[in-house]
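user: can you give me the structure for this one chain? tokens are fine.
assistant: on it. calling the predictor now.
[tool input]
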Amino acid sequence: MTRTITYACLSILLVTSIILRPDEAFQASLQGLTVWWNIVFPGLLPFLALLELMLTFGAVHALGALLHPLMRRLFRLPGESGIAMALGWTGGFPLGAEAVAALRRSKSVTVAEGQRLLSLSHMPSPLFMLLVVGSGFLHRPELGAAIAAAVWISAVLTSFITAHFSSASAPAPTRGDNKEQPAPTSVLRRAAAAMQAASKRDGRTFGKALGDAVVVSVYKLMAIGGFMIFAAVLVRLLQPLMPERIPAFLLPAFLESHIGVYAAATTKFAGGVPWTAACAAAVLSWSGLSALLQAGSMLADTGLSLARLAAARLVQSLLAFFITLLAWKPAGKLLQYIIPSSAPTFSQTEKTGAATAASIRAGDLHSLWPYTPVLLIGFLFAVSVLITLSAAIAGTSGRHISR
């Protein structure tokens, strides 16, 4: 009851603010719509449809059999979790949460496994970090690569921490964890059998499955766009109320990651470029309240906790911030040694002063529409790498047991 009353009061306050300040609310909604259309829509649409088709025809279950040795050894997760990880790391928020929710509904992962997988798969788009943040916001592509590396490393560290030190991290007794690893031929047979069984259970034709995939994907994208526009309007309406002693980028960073990372990238920090990159990595690792709510809408009826995901994002955000600062000088010296012409890349600049507004300029926002094929190729490459590593681990385990 208390939560319902709180949400109702907040909704009334928001509507009242929009009525009193319609121009600012309209401009903010256009900003959120622009980010959604240029960044989120092209980045998520093909992957959402692909996930539906993979689930329909059993490709997820087949790949799960191939990836089981790797995911169980590293993260104490079933093989199907590798698909959610690959989708989340290539497609961006909230594709990883959607993939985990689909695996949870099909009972491919337990609640404990799904919770850990959720924190590992809820990731920002790599092209957004490299192209939009690095080349567009910061005008330095190498900074986008450094930020992406910090986000990825902090995500893996967070997953290792939760997998090996959490009381809920014990591996499930099923799935044959203590059994001898099968030979490569038997693994392929198991993958084919799992794919055939899953496809038979679904029973839809390709045309029906494709139509359903497109409809469901567009519906989910519309909901994601609504969350983003809502967060953008909140940022614009609440900014004048923020105390001056609080950095201006914190509010947009808390509410919406795309707007928040732009605000962090255009803020003049006393620490210079290292602090700019560290704050940008922290904002992207946190993902913003908007992306968390998007993930929460997809986790309905799965038993997974949005609060635990938010806690994991907070831990990853702190790790990404400190990893960026600690690795800044060593990374700069390494690049200077490898590529002397890039010596100024990681140097500090005269960026000091107050924060700037969090209004994204159209010229700084690269559209991801031309890069959709690159995202799909990246997903295929990621899955191929995971399968190769999994086969290597399975082969090593088999030789060890034979001895």
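assistant: here you go. Residues 22-167+182-402 form one domain. The chain is about 75% helix and 0% strand.
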